[in-house]
Amino acid sequence: MPSNYLQSILDSALDALVTIDESGLIVEFNSVAETTFGRKRRDVVGQPMVELIIPPELRGAHLAGMAKYKETGEGPVLNQRIQITALRANGDVFPIELAIVPLINEGQRLFTATIRDITEMLAREKQLEESMKQEILLRRELDHRVKNNLGQIVVMCRQAMERSTSDQGCIKDLLNRVLAMSTIHDLFGSTSDDGIPLNELVAKGCEPYRHTDEQVSIQGPQLHLKPTTAMTMSVIINELATNAAKYGAFLDEAGSVSITWTHADEQVVFLWSEHVKHDIDTNGSPSFGFQLLNSLIPYELDGSVQHVFGPDGISFTATIPDKCFQGDRA
Amino acid sequence: MICSHEQNSIPGMLVVEDSYLLGMQMKQDLETMGMKVHGPVPSVQKAMHLIEREKITAAILDINLGKETSFPIAKQLKSMDIPFVFITGYDDLGIVEDEFSDHSLFRKPVQTQVLYDVVRKF
């Protein structure tokens, strides 16, 4: 039995300390050991350790190891840190880190085990590992998105170059298309995992082209776009808005655009409808913008589109499968 | 420039790419280089449909099609002994399934000329 001085050192240790004698009986059990194993010192001193803190499936190996050490003086688990499991009084088996040091005290051979409960440490490690995996996944996704965008910008530039001799405005269109892509990235950054609210995407897309707030009315049930769908729709909104600025509702302050959508039968029907006061110039060669308006939604979202030039201005209708929108709400 | 016999040597290039812009540009470029292009198509289903109906002699496959990968298309092409190359926006070249490891893989953005030089030799 240690002196009070030694006992207080043992009890101030940060790890559980358990000492046994050569026959496997507990001779020392500090206060951390009491907490870790849920047993009182007075109940365990003099008792065989193997039945108290070693899980049943490891007991055979422990006894065999002790016997071998007695016989040969060799103990492969001695003097090193190993990870193994231990048993609490309530029957819980939990992970520990363990180091066993043999020592001789007053002619008696003893073994002192330093034991650390690593349940929380392992949980933290696992958490960290998962968040790192998540981060790698996110980085990959971001990388993919950026590369795709760069690829698309290259295509836009080339299309603009081909038209730049006959249509000077195409360089400005190019700039606006790239800006629209950057706007959608702002929305990705500021919204949660729920996806991008359609009303915000529409409002943001019109912003650079409209003269007043009142020119744009947006109405429809709350819908959130999946990221890839949002990219496609932002191009569509930009083409509609830039077209409106050149020929339609955003040419002056007198025009207006009503943007509405409905959601029924697994489909979202999106309607962009302009009301203009001036005469509309519908002549002109089919532009790259109209190619995008006609083809993007059928190609990328498996939907359909239709546009009509009425006396009031253009009406553009897109029918989009609702699987392009985020989960519950759609 | 492109000779006519080269044009004949690749009568049917299938292009699978989920971005409309990238797909259209590739088609335009390949056609300028004298190839006949089927597609572009953005999905496995539409690609399979073209493979059934058209005479495809080579293919360019974007691996990631958004909701799916183009590996089922690759499997089908391989079983028909039709050569193809992959393109991908991902850095991770380990993404290609083992059975296709002998097929070329290009990272986006890829110059169509580079693809052309490869598929021309098929």
Tell me the CATH architecture of chain B: 3-Layer(aba) Sandwich
Round the mean pLDDT of chain B to the nearest integer and report it. 83
Low-confidence stretches of chain A: none
Oligomer: heterodimer
CATH topology of chain B: Rossmann fold
Count the helices of chain A. How many?
Answer: 10
The helix fraction of chain A, in percent, is 40-55%
Query: Radius of gyration of chain B from the CA trace?
Result: 13 Å
Largest interface by Cβ-Cβ < 8 Å: A-B, 21 and 20 residues
- Based on Cα principal axes, name the global outline of chain B: globular
Textual characterization of the structure:
The complex is a heterodimer of chains A (330) and B (122). Chain A has 330 residues and is α+β, with helices and mostly antiparallel strands. Chain A is 46% helix and 25% strand. Chain A has 2 domains: 4-117, 2-Layer Sandwich (Beta-Lactamase), CATH 3.30.450.20; 122-324, Histidine kinase-like ATPase, C-terminal domain (Heat Shock Protein 90, 2-Layer Sandwich). Chain A is built from 10 helices and 12 strands. A 5-stranded antiparallel β-sheet of chain A has the order 2-1-5-4-3. Chain A has a 5-stranded mixed β-sheet with strand order 7-9-10-12-11, with helices on one face. In chain A, strands 6-8 form a two-stranded antiparallel sheet. In chain A, helix 7 packs antiparallel against helix 9 (227-247), helix 8 (198-206) packs parallel to helix 9 and helix 9 (227-247) runs antiparallel to helix 10. Chain A is rod-shaped, with a radius of gyration of 37 Å. By secondary structure, chain B is α/β, with parallel strands linked by helices. Chain B has a single domain (4-119), classed as 3-Layer(aba) Sandwich (Rossmann fold), CATH 3.40.50. Chain B has helices at residues 4-9, 20-32, 44-53, 71-79, 112-119; strands at 13-16, 37-41, 58-62, 84-88, 105-107. In chain B, strand 3, helix 4 (71-79) and strand 4 form a beta-alpha-beta unit. Classes of the chains: A alpha+beta (330), B alpha/beta (122). The A-B interface holds A 140, 143-145, 147-148, 150-152, 154-156, 158-159, 228, 292, 295-296, 299-300, 302 and B 18-25, 40, 42-43, 64, 66, 89-92, 107-109.
